[in-house]
Amino acid sequence: MTEAAPVPADASMHCHNCRSNVPAGAFCGNCGAHLAPRAGDGPAWLRAGVFCAAPHESVARPSLASTLLPQLSELTRRPFNMGLVLIVIAMAVLVELHLPGGLITVASLGLPLLLLIYWHRSGVLSDIPRWAVVTTVVLAVALAVGWVLITGDLVVSTAASPFESGSAGRRVLRDGLGVAEGGSILMLVPAGIVRLLWRGRRDSLTGFVIGVLSALLFTAAATLTRLAPQFVSAPIARTQPVQWLFFEAAVRGVAVPVTAACALGLVGTTLWFHRHREASRFGSWRVIVGLALAAVTVLGVYAVVGWADIEGVSQVQVLSWHVAMALVALVSLRIGLQLTLLHERTDPPTGAFLLCLHCRHVVPEMAFCPACGAADRAAPERSRRERRRVSPEGLVAQDDPANSGDTALWPGYAAPERIYTAARLTRQSPTPVLATWLVGMTVLSAIFIGLPALTVRPAPRYNCPPDCGTPMAGQPVSANPRFTAAGGLFSVAYPAPGSAYEVTTDDTGVTAKFTGGDGGELRLTSQRATEQTARDVAKDFIAATFPTARKSFEIPNAMVGFQPGYGEVDDVFPLDLDTSFTRMRVIVIVAVKNDLALIAAATGPFHEFGPKFGPGRPSPANVQIAEDMGRYVNSFQWKGDPPR
User: Fold this and answer.
1) What parts of the sequence cross the membrane (predicted)?
2) Range of the domain at 572
């Protein structure tokens, strides 16, 4: 920070914003406004150019450290940035090692653990009653687990019908956005209950900490619960592509926690906001409107990310939307913090002096630093007590606890022109912070990975005989009804009424939703080939319905209606944050004749076949609906084909 010119202690100025006489300086110590406004400073009620918790930054600067740790100085926040880098490095290593359990643990708990370490070491948590912290933790975790258990399969059961359009799309938007917005509203409950029970002094940063704590624990518990199947599926996920693991880490480990922390931090800040006793002079309606707009913006953020999760867009687009919305939430939170710190109730000036945490000048203890404009409330009470122990150089008693090797000399500003002795500003060493985080993550990873690993069963072993099974195809379909397209271009058999299928038809074919077992969906349809090969048609069909699909293997000797064609089996790893983890398997087989492509496609949850599930013999299909699919693939007939 630029060295401020000394100001005589007895000089005063009239603030045109709050209409009071205050010590002369760059900022009003009463309301924080510029005492000598310049062009470009913006309105005094927002003071957008100087952030109250980090005067060297503007309000619009999306700095993660100064936003999530507004009570600390720039020097103290540096190890936090190193901790963020360590989280990213840890996730990158786990992605390369294909360790989804460790990735989920770090992505879910990395940021909450880092913040808890910081809050504890800096004294932030000591300013909040223990009952409030415990209540927030218990309610956030309990509500998150309950919400996931209730809604975990709601969206995936609808989104697993990708072949439908129109009504299915509306159901996805309705249910998917309902789950996303419902979860965001449910996150408000812990902070709301604590606020109702609160009887002590209110200040915005107390509510901010409670809101951030509630959000991070809610999202962590929800993520761990939703992705619990990955802990027991396999210690090493060799089948999951690195690309998918990377996007999962970026979304779940960075974007989602930051968005949730900003959203609930803003809500908590607003709930604990106590307006200044002279709020009418500061334009309180602007503050209320500003906070309301920020809150609406955050709710809109959750609607956008909920839409991105369920719309079926590519992973790059999903990540882009999440990052963009996290930045919007971050700036919205900074605006909310700025408004509340500028306009909340403060203690009257005491006439004492203290060392400013940011510009490192000894200044009069007021609501705002006259030199840099930092809010006095943007610091833990322990820090303020330490920084109040200031004395002119040479006038400190030898037995004063501040007169030791922990003291330093500091210049005065808006104070008598002399050098002052005060406690050294605490610098957070990165070593204990990062070491504590590493130990904590190691212990948590051992719990969340080691214990489920004990329940992992070895892969089934086949012995033929007796585990030879029966072929998956070859069951008669003559008893099933047939669909005939307009003009008789093709016909195909489909499941009979009363079977475990819900059948719908349209002009292009049949959609049969499997309602038994694992569920799934079968699509028997057609489209003009327009001189494309069967392979090209299949690729285009998969790209349109499953943009994030990854090819597992190609089906040899694929046939549709006994016409040689092309077939492939794909895996889809959904990135929908509001559903339980389900690996999807997609089978698409296409054949072309008379420039008409006939397509048989099936999708359902991946379920490895074994002696006790499936046809009883090894098969790479590994999706239950494939056992029925074979009955209908070769029932296709083009126009003019001889009867079979």
Assistant:
1) 79-95, 101-119, 131-156, 176-198, 205-229, 249-273, 285-307, 319-337, 434-454
2) 482-638
Indicate whether 438 belongs to any domain.
Answer: no
Residue 265 to residue 70: CA distance in whole angstroms: 11
pTM (2 d.p.): 0.77
What are 135's two structure tokens?
Answer: 């209540």
Give the mean pLDDT per block of 10 residues along the chain (644 residues): 56 87 92 87 87 93 93 85 91 83 87 93 90 96 88 52 45 50 82 93 93 94 81 61 72 86 91 71 64 76 66 73 88 92 84 90 93 92 87 54 62 84 79 92 84 62 55 53 90 87 89 87 92 93 84 90 93 62 85 94 84 68 85 90 80
Cα angle 606, 610, 613 (rounded to 5 degrees) comes to: 70
Element (H, E) at 341: helix 315-343
Give the pair of three-digit tokens for residue 599. Answer: 């397509």
Measured in whole angstroms, how far is the alpha carbon of residue 309 from the centre of its chain?
Answer: 11
Rounded CA-CA distance 23/558 in Å is 85
345, 361, 384 — which closes off a domain?
345
Does any domain span residue 388?
Answer: yes
Contact partners, residue 453, CB within 8 Å, separation at least 6: 101, 231, 232, 235
Same domain, 28 and 91: no
What's the number of domains the chain is made of? 3
Nearest alpha-carbon partner for 424 in 124, 57, 125, 75: 75
Kind plus residue range of the DSSP H or E element containing 140: helix 130-151
